[in-house]
Design goal:
Layout: E1 6-10, E2 14-16, E3 21-24, E4 29-33, E5 38-40, E6 45-48, E7 53-57, E8 61-63, E9 65-67, H1 71-76, E10 88-92, E11 97-99, E12 107-109, E13 115-117, E14 127-136, E15 150-160, E16 167-169, E17 174-175, E18 183-186, E19 192-195
């Protein structure tokens, strides 16, 4: 069934505990803390079947697994239908976006000022999606960090950050403008409304 949207909104800090699954199989997912942080446990998941996921925190955001793949590709760890996966929109208004898991990624110097990055398993991936749109505020806020970057499997990414960006992708990624990403928010009466930020692109 379509239009089975999921919205979870809270004014205070939101903690998504270990092994918790928030899923919509037929609609979008909208998760928001309007005044504080959102902390996903490393083993928690937010999932859709080819639909958009929005996670917005007033301060910081830590990520477990955010998965907008198709059911077939999820089951087989395939990229064959990635052009039809859902989009992911991450927003931390005044804090960093970090990886909740503690694994680190090794970097080696190739002698020419470049680095080689070791591969990582699908189970270590933080974000699966077609397009990834990231907006971070705060004077020194970061997206990932040097030893524990955000691991992704996305086709296209656009990141606006006031601090550093540390992102590694499992295959190939294009860094370019991403148009407005929209979810369908469900209010307490069951009525839905489209939520975006009104911007055509994010450079």
């Amino acid at each position: 069934h379509r239009d089975l949207h999921l919205s979870l909104r809270r004014q205070r800090q939101m903690c998504i505990r270990d092994s918790t699954y928030l899923a919509s199989y037929g609609g979008t997912v909208d998760v928001e803390s309007s005044t504080a942080s959102i902390a996903m446990d490393a083993t928690s998941r937010i999932t859709t079947d080819n639909d958009t996921i929005r996670i917005a925190a007033a301060t910081a955001l830590s990520l477990g697994t955010v998965d907008a793949r198709s059911p077939v590709d999820r089951a087989s760890d395939s990229l064959s239908d990635q052009v039809n996966w859902g989009d992911v929109w991450l927003w931390a208004a005044s804090g960093s976006i970090t990886d909740a898991s503690s694994e680190t990624t090794s970097f080696t110097d190739d002698g020419h000022g470049r680095t080689d990055i070791g591969s990582f398993a699908p189970s270590a991936t933080d974000v699966f999606g077609r397009r990834l749109r990231v907006e971070i505020g705060g004077t020194t806020s970061q997206f990932g960090n040097g030893t524990n970057p955000i691991e992704s499997e996305v086709h296209t990414a656009a990141i606006a950050s006031t601090g550093g960006v540390s992102l590694v992708d499992a295959s190939a990624i294009s860094i370019e403008a991403v148009s407005d990403v929209v979810v369908d928010r469900v209010d307490n009466t069951g009525t839905t409304s489209s939520i975006g930020d009104g911007l055509a692109v994010l450079d």
